[in-house]
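Journal club prep — side note

Before the paper discussion, L.F. wants everyone to see what a predicted structure for a comparable chain looks like in token form. Sequence:
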Amino acid sequence: MDIILVPGFWLDASSWSEVTLPLVAAGHRVHPLTLPGKQSPDASRAGIGLRDHIDAVVDTIDALDGPVVLVGHSGGGAIIYGAIDERPDRVSRAIYVDSGPLAAGGVINNELPADGDDVPLPSWETFDDADLTDLTDELRAEFRARAIPEPRGVAYDAQQLSNESRFEVPTTIIACEFPSSQILEWIQGNHPYVAELARIRDVEYVDLPTGHWPQFTRPVELGAELLAAVSRES
């Protein structure tokens, strides 16, 4: 199976390096992406928006033969959902890592402070305690050293969707900060945060208790959960 991995904000393809080991060992072909404007801290992010990142995923799908699995972490969840809207017939499963689908008109996070075209990684005080669970001082230092500013447009642009076939793509939610029981309560309570998720026909939930960056805090376990989800499509 071809597996396309889309990192969250401030991260590039290398952020998946420890997670992909069991996938490769099982014979899968992994395609971790470095999205436009995130090649390096010095790369230009002028004019790069959410659609550019979605198009990069669509282009990767189109360059491959057969079905693919899309994995999106954090803000990458909105990006893979936009790609699913474009190519629902090519995606055998979507896997959201501490993330979920972003509805039309929604934005990933327009409250993050921007510096021109850049959204730098904010101070740790900006994040909730749940975000930072298991992210030790050493891991925080490593993360900050590798962090690449996010293009402002990716964080601030509104999602655009048009293809209701996106609701037919089987979906896995890997719940980290909040347990799956909490997500199901939100769905039952018609919480707007999960309104789009509630419209997907086939959703499974996996609990991986940790903070918002399991690829750093629990990479072995995350890789195992991805492999289990992908194996159901192989």
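L.F.'s comment for the group: The mean pLDDT is 96. Keep this in mind when we get to the figures.
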